[in-house]
Amino acid sequence: MSDDGATPKELLFESCRRNNTALLSDLLSQPPLSSSAPAIAHFLNTTTDSLGAGALHLAAKHGAYDVLDALLDQEGVEIDHAEKREGDSCLHAAVRYVNGLRPDEWEGEGKAMVEILVDAGCDPRARNKARLRPVDLLDPRNEVVRGVLQRAEVQFLAGGDVVQEDDDDAPDGPGSESD
């Protein structure tokens, strides 16, 4: 890996800002991390910028979906860490990023950024220092992402016991349409 003297922290943050999965992969596979799950988890969970934002925050803030996906795949990564300045979780950061998108990008890129974090287990009920949940920060016109966050809140409140509706009309299992 050619790092031109950059520290692992600098390389991590650069991969998050630029959505550079190759740089992230190289970083995590080379010494001192050498693909060691405990070492990688410790590095990702303890490496923050001066405001306390970690790699997940930075990737979410910059819309680095592919890097976010790779980070969430790392064993032991902590997902609900709050940064120091605003007390935002990475889900708050993703919503702030989505607010900067054009409305025609909400359905695709915006929804995907929020869904990947919700699917990974980020708590949509988490409040920042201003006592705001991610949904409270969302552009009020963005019904697409609002729906994702509201469904996630319901699932958290129900303890994951929410039944997903089946879209097809086909019978389920034997005996469904017996005479």
From TrEMBL:
InterPro entries: Ankyrin_rpt, Ankyrin_rpt-contain_sf. It holds the Pfam family Ank_2. Residues 159-179 are annotated as: Disordered. It comes from the Eukaryota. This is Ankyrin repeat protein. It comes from Cladosporium halotolerans.
